[in-house]
Each structure stands twice: as C-alpha cells, then as structure tokens.
Amino acid sequence: MLAYILRRILQSVIVMLVVALVAFSLFRFVGDPVSTLVGQEVTIAERETLRDQLGLNDPFPMQFASFIARAAQADFGISYRLQQPVMELILARLPATLELALVSGLFAFFFGVTLGVYTALNRRGWTSSAIMTVSLIGVSLPTFLIGVLLIWVFAVELQWLPSFGRGEVVDLGWWRTGLLTPSGRASLVLPAITLGLYQLTLIMRLVRAEMLEVLRADYIKFARARGLSNRAVHFSHALKNTMVPVITITGLQLGSIIAFSIITETVFQWPGVGALFINSVRTVDVPVMAAYLMLIALIFVVINLIVDLLYFAIDPRLRIDRSAVRH
Amino acid sequence: MTEPLLSVRDLVVEFPTRRGTLRALDRVSFDIEEGEVLGMVGESGAGKSITGAAIIGLIEPPGRIAGGEIWLRGERIDTLPPERMRRIRGKRIGMVFQDPLTSLNPLFTVAEQIIETIRTHLDMGEREARERAIALLDQVGIPAARRRIDDYPHHFSGGMRQRVVIALALAAEPELVIADEPTTALDVSVQAQIIDVLKEMCASRGASVLLITHDMGVIAETADRVAVLYAGRMAEIGHVQGVIQNAEHPYTRGLMGSIPTLTQSADRLVQIPGAMPRLNAIPDGCAFNPRCPQVFNRCRVERPELLDRGNGRRVACWLYDEAGVSGPGETAGERTGSQDG
User: Fold this and answer.
1) Does the beta carbon of A325 lie under 8 angstroms from any beta carbon of chain B?
2) Which of A9, A30, B121, B142 is geometrically suited to a Cys-Cys bond with B137, CB 3.0 to 4.6 A?
3) A241 at the B interface (CB within 8 A)?
4) Residue range B69-110, pLDDT digits in tens
C-alpha cells in the first residue's frame, strides 16, 4: 500500500516536471522577455547586461533548474501586465474558481448518478426516454450557448438570478467566499449549472451504461435468487459495483471542470483564475500563463492520486493483501 | 403417497423474439419428493436452466411462463406477486449457480453477503446472524471459518467460493435447492468434493435438490431420480439406476452410450448423429425424430406424451405405445416389459 502510494507520487512528480518543461518553454519561445521589460531606447549593451543579470544567458538546463526551484517555492515571478507577484494574483482568484468548480461538480455528480440510476432501473419507461433525449441535447450544446440561454431565460426574462459576477463575498482572511451571502449563492447558480451540465450528462450516461452492465452480472442474479429486496439488490449490490469506474471519470471530470471553467467564467464574468488566464493570453503575460499551466497540472495530478486512493477504499480486490493471497 | 414438495405441471416458457415466439420449455411436468435429489440432464439449450429459473421465478424478461403450474408444498407459486415470490427465494427455494467466480459480489465480504441473506429471511440480530454464518461456513468445509469470514470473495479459490455459494443458498434453510451446473466451472479434482458438500448439506437438512447438469457421472452418484430433457420437452424420467442401466427413450440410450466406461474398450465413443434442433425449428411430431435410429411414421406427425412404464418410469416415445396403430413391432417388443429394480 505504502509502496504503491510512493510509486504514484513519484509518477506525479515526473508528470509535473514535464509540464514544467512546457511552461518554461513558454518563456523562451513566446517573445523575448528583455524587450518586454525595457523600453525601446535601451542600448544593446545594456540589454546584454540585463540578460546576464536575469540569468538568460545561462545554459538551458541551468535556467530550467532555477525555474523549477522557484516554482517549487510557488514563485512564478511578476506578472508583466499587472506588475504583481503571479502567485498573489492567482491565490486571490482561486477561491472563486474552486467554489464554482466544486458546486458544479457536486451538482453534476448528484444529479448524474440519480438520473443514471433511474434511467437504468426504468429502462423502458417513458420518463427515461425523455431524460435520455434531453441529455443528448445537453451533450451536444456548447457550454457558452447553454450559459447564454440560461442568462436569457433566468436573468433577462424571469429576472430570478443575477447574470454576472460573484455577488457579495465574505473575506475569511485567506479565502473570499460567496457561499455565505444570499447574493453570492444566487450568483453561483447559473454558472454552476452551465459548467456542470455537460459533466452531468456524461456521468448520467456512464452510470446508466455501467449499471445496465452490472445488473446483468451473475452476482446480481444470485443476489435476487437469495431473495434480497430490490432495494438491496439495486442500491447496495449494483450501485456499489457501478461506482468503481464512475468515480474515476468523475474525478477526472472535476479536474477538467476547474481547467475549462475559462469559458463559463468569461460568459458570466466570474472573477476566477480562468478569467485571469484569458486576459493574460491576450497580453502575452507569460508568467501568469506558465503558473496557470502548472497549477492546473497540479490539480489534475492531485485529483488523480485521490481517485486512485478512493479505488482502494471501494474495491477490495486492489488492496495488496499479501497475507491473504497466500491461501 | 404424500404430496410432493414441488410439482411442475405442463410448464411452458416462451421467449418472444422479432422472428416469432420461441418455446424454451414445452409442457414439462415432474415432481420432486421430500428429501429427494432429482437430476436433470440434457444438452445445452435443452431447457434445464430455464426450468430452474422458472421455478425460482427469475426468468429473464422478455421470457415468460406462458402456461402450466408450479406448486410448492400445495401452494401455487408461479402466479405469486413479485414481492411474495421474493420472500420464497432464498427462504424456501435456494439456488446455486454455475460459476462461483462470478456468483459472489466482489465488493462485499463473505460475512456481509451471508449475514445480509440470513437477516433478509430470518428474524435475527447482527451478532446471531454472524454466528450462524460462521457455523454455515464451517459446515461447508471452509477451514478457519471464523477468521476467513471477513475475507472478500477474491481471497478464496474457485472450489472454496462454491462452498461459500452453497452456504449462501442454504443460509435460510430452504426446503428445495436448485443447483444449476454447480461443478461445471470447477477443476475436476474439486468437483466431487463440492457435490459431496452439497449432498451432505441438503441431506442433513432434509432439503430436496434439483440438480441440473450435463454430467451423467454426477447424476449417477448423487441423484435419486433423473429427468432427461430434449429440446424443451421431457424425454424420460425415472429412477437413476433404471434409467442408466436400461434407458428406454432412444435419446437417453444415445446419451448413455456417449459416456466412456473403463470396462468397455471402444476406440470411439458412441455419438448421436446430428444436433438438437434450434428452438425455432423443432420438427413436427417427436422433437428427436430426425436423429432417432428407430424412427417410424407416427414419430413424424404426432408428438408423444409421457407414457407411464411402471415403477416410476415415464417415457415420451411411441415405441412403447402398445395401443398405437402403427407400432414398429420388433424394436418395441424387445424393450417392452423390461422393468428396473
């Protein structure tokens, strides 16, 4: 078990190093940092001195090593555009993105599993067919369109919910949350649905397919032959087996919800990391882009690790139990 | 004679398909007496497993019981509402499936699965049910049951898992156990052990067994009576010794001839020419007539019913219909009057 975790962490570190290489390459290939730092009137000799001071004339491995060393201490330098430390900028906006991602992830997971189980158990029902048809629309509509449609219906026509921003936020010192105020919660609804809808349909279809597969399994037949109630067969035996693959996908989807919140944040002018990234791309703010890349990679790697550990909790076959294997 | 434990009368099971309705079972009738082991043999697709599924009420839709009756100790069970039938499953009729590797839910410990079954049917607390589960595992021959009970199915070998499955099937003391090919998926070396365990467990509880298999050896050693199915119809039923030593239906005779024996040295095993008809192409008359070595005209037009041949033997074959107008004469004469002891 411990060896397994260590091996997975080592793999994660390798992934992070590769991503760091890509992020670092941004600095070298997207424009010349010196020309973005200094004015046009600076002489070539002065530029060379600056280049030396910044360590830009060092060989590639050395520069990369110092980039890694600083990144490991969460130091990604100063934003070209805003002239503030990149980490400060990102940390200030991260709560907004994480809250949005978490709420929409929970929304997608809860409704996805519920609807998936329902449509699997009532396969031939009229409601199931309706849900499946609607979910097809959910899968095929692009996120921004769903966002705009929701704004039109619920913000413009019905005027039930705000169409942009985060509402009032409460500053907890290190975390600015919108979950504690009514306007903050109301502002969260539309973006969370927009961001989570695609994942919802994906999880629902996955749960449905898995559950139908599991319901055909011998152990389900045997569970029925033992006279267990439908409730026990469906929600204890079948659902638990269904959840094994669903958890992987859901975990990975949570990563992509965070990573691809960019579009939703843009549509709803959500003050999160995604919006920061979009603005940075526009102005070629390389340090912010590099930091964002590393951050998203880190989130993916951490979620993956958690998913793998969850597997152990759910599926006993994976627990490496040497004492028992010998029998 | 007392009332049989289980009585199946003219059971018909149909599967509607796009190309018409398939009859998987066609007017099958048999009884199982109290404490009796009834073997059921036949080729794959003859309807053995469907019979078991029909009795326990678990025919996979769209299949359905289209006719006939199933009585369990005087109570008709094929028309019970699903919830009442569920209470009979596990409690009064237990079932053992073919593949022990897939019969147990891999994500639950053996303890969880047995205790769950016991508590579904018997009014017992967790602790009491656990003790009972340990006792059951001990009886089916799981060594160190008290320690092993909290293991997961994958910690057990195939043979051990089938023991666990038997313990599960018998957890609520059913009166009837349906064992659907309980040894087919196992190593030859453990097959005999599992049959012994099954037999012993049922005998000590006085439970009857419907043993479905295509292994005549298992039937010969275990069953009291044997029923032979062919293309969803009953071909012959009778006491095991009698049927094995003196099969009357030509199909049964072919089946017995295909068993290798040590005493009889033959270069080739006897085989029945041809194959069992598909369910959508069962010939008129006797279903076996295209392959039967003793076929005559009547077999091709009229379907034979089970004829009582005395001493509990019943055979569905026109060879033994003495009242028949177009009897074959010598072949039938050779066989008539042969009684088994």
Assistant:
1) yes
2) B142
3) yes
4) 999 998 999 889 989 999 999 899 999 988 888 899 998 999
